[in-house]
Design goal:
Chain lengths: 355, 236
């Protein structure tokens, strides 16, 4: 089905909003949408990894980058040389996007205009801010080559998540007609697969079908169920979108709860025992902090998905002050972590070394 | 030119570590008082038990819904949301007396429960699965089972969770940040999951209200506290 996009407007999307969009809890049906095509569902193979056996590691160096209270939501510059954040420093400095180098020093104003343009956007080879998309468009994602854009339309009302329907649309970034791909029920568009041939989404594709994470080919082929789960949460694509990490909780089958990683090409899934906070470092390198109920300190591990080997990067005590609000980010090179200290609200950097 | 208010808030925020230590269960000073309440679940957090799904305060989601869901609470999320399967046992966070059952004026349906505590606070438990099997005036003890979790969408698969508030007793007209009043390591509990906890920023004072522990109390029916001219992130 194709149609010309009515009522265009400029839509600005940034990497920050990717995560925030998951907080919306919309839901209502759109009776105008056509039924979803019948599916062919493959059954993924789940291969739990071996239990963690932390090995002694050198303690990495940690140092504060900013003054107390500064600042929330740090992100890395594209080359990993700076930390970016929004601030309005004391004195006469203006509000804006600031950058601090990894050896500290006074943050420098990068842009006095706070916008998505000042932040690097993951999983997109170009920014969507220049694109004209429908007023109803949400969760816009640029393809790896930058030639196409996908987005969703549908209810954004914060009601029953199970009933929420969002249709997924794709068009060329240079304009033209948009095509509706299908409708997601109780889920959302996550982004493009790394090969640029398919979209990754969560939810159900039919009223009575299975729930989980889907690879949706754009050549008309059948959608592929990458991993089944009642509600995949915190879905994060790796930097080149070759992998997707997410977690499951409160599943009917408790053994399925925890963090999962799937190849977006559809070649199986892996789980990490228990639940953790996780971020992508380099492609295929998942950094995570497992939650251990009877331990107050925090450890950082890395799972190399190309080898399947997990090892400890930080064992125990290397996050001075603890992490505030789960606010941390791994550098593009995977060997540094910035986090916000729960004790003083500063940004701190950890040089992991040898990751 | 920065406003005097912004500078005062900056000073307060700079002093946040001191305030944080007062409330933190991990602090070690002998004179530091422990928060007076316990968690509303007997089990520790985890993917089989319960998860911290939305904090109190100026969350991005509350900002988006400041004129709808959270309009009565000055635009802030006036409790904490703790995700759990329907039917998970809820326990009293402190000793007290049951003063309200299924009071629709307090919201958080389909069922709710209010307990007044002798220290001047009240605890409010919302989105319960069924009417609590308690009578008005009943005394409860901290840790006593009092209710079971439900789902505001009545499906038990949509967004089942406990909405927990701590209010002023007996008026119930003000709400306080439960993070400061419940003895738990909330920042560590917030690490159970993928995404960061995100608070909306006011570009007129972007450092304000950006920590779990740094959130204002609210008065029900008061003006919006977060009706920002320049919010970040922008509304979709």
């Amino acid at each position: 089905m194709t149609m010309t996009i009515p009522g265009r407007r400029r839509l600005r999307v940034c990497a920050l909003v990717v995560a925030l969009a998951a907080l919306a809890i919309p839901g209502c049906t759109d009776p105008r949408l056509p039924p979803v095509v019948p599916l062919t569902v493959s059954t993924p193979t789940f291969t739990p990894l071996a239990p963690l056996e932390p090995t002694p590691v050198p303690q990495p160096s940690a140092s504060p980058l900013t003054e107390p209270g500064c600042c929330a939501r740090p992100s890395w510059s594209e080359d990993g040389s700076q930390i970016l954040f929004v601030d309005d420093p004391p004195g006469d400095e203006p509000v804006g996007v600031y950058a601090v180098s990894l050896d500290g020093g006074a943050p420098q104003l990068v842009s006095a205009t706070v916008s998505e343009d000042a932040f690097p956007s993951s999983n997109a080879s170009s920014d969507v801010s220049a694109l004209d998309l429908p007023d109803a468009a949400r969760t816009a994602r640029i393809s790896p080559k930058g030639d196409r854009v996908a987005w969703t339309e549908g209810s954004t009302a914060p009601v029953n998540v199970d009933l929420r329907r969002r249709s997924i649309w794709v068009s060329q970034t240079q304009g033209g007609t948009a095509g509706r791909v299908l409708t997601i029920i109780g889920g959302d568009l996550i982004g493009w697969a790394g090969d640029g041939l398919a979209l990754i989404a969560t939810g159900r594709l039919s009223e009575s079908g299975p729930r989980g994470v889907w690879r949706i080919p754009l050549d008309g082929g059948p959608p592929l169920l990458l991993a089944q789960g009642e509600r995949p949460r915190s879905a994060l694509l790796s930097p080149s979108a070759g992998w997707l990490a997410f977690y499951l909780a409160f599943e009917e089958e408790p053994s399925r709860n925890g963090v999962w990683v799937v190849r977006t090409s559809g070649e199986g899934a892996q789980s990490i025992s228990g639940l953790a906070s996780f971020r992508w470092g380099r492609e295929g390198q998942l950094l995570y902090i497992p939650y251990i109920a009877d331990r107050a300190d925090l450890s950082l591990y890395v799972l190399d998905l190309t080898t399947g080997i997990t090892r400890a990067l930080i064992d125990g005590t290397a996050f001075p002050g603890g992490i505030a609000s789960n606010d941390w980010a791994a550098s593009p090179t995977g060997d540094r972590v910035v986090y916000r200290s729960a004790a003083d609200g500063r940004l701190w950097i950890l040089f992991l070394g040898g990751s | 030119m920065k406003t005097a208010g912004a500078l005062v808030r900056r000073l307060v925020l700079t002093a946040a570590p001191v305030l944080l230590l007062v409330a933190s269960p991990t602090s070690t000073g002998a004179s530091q008082a422990r928060p007076p309440f316990g968690l509303p679940f007997a089990s520790p957090p985890g993917p089989e038990t319960w998860l911290f799904t939305q904090p109190y305060g100026n969350t991005v989601f509350a900002f988006r819904e400041r004129r709808s869901f959270y309009g009565a609470g000055q635009g802030l999320h006036f409790g904490v949301d703790l995700g759990a399967r329907c039917g998970t046992e809820v326990v009293a966070i402190g000793d007290g007396v049951v003063v309200g059952i299924d009071q629709s004026a307090h919201g958080a349906g389909p069922h709710n429960l209010m307990i007044d505590h002798p220290n001047g606070y009240a605890s409010f438990y919302g989105h319960l699965l069924e009417r609590p099997q308690l009578r008005l005036g009943a005394e409860v003890r901290q840790g006593q089972p009092i209710a079971r979790t439900g789902d505001p969408d009545l499906s038990c698969t949509s967004r089942p969770h406990l909405h927990l508030e701590i209010r002023e007793a007996p008026s119930h007209r003000r709400a306080f940040n439960p993070i400061l009043l419940i003895d738990a390591d909330w920042d560590r509990i917030a690490l159970l999951g993928g995404y960061p906890v995100t608070f909306e920023q006011d570009l007129a004072d972007p450092r304000r209200w950006q920590l779990l522990t740094d959130q204002p109390e609210i008065s029900f029916g008061g003006d919006l506290l977060n009706d920002y001219d320049n919010p970040w992130p922008p509304s979709p």
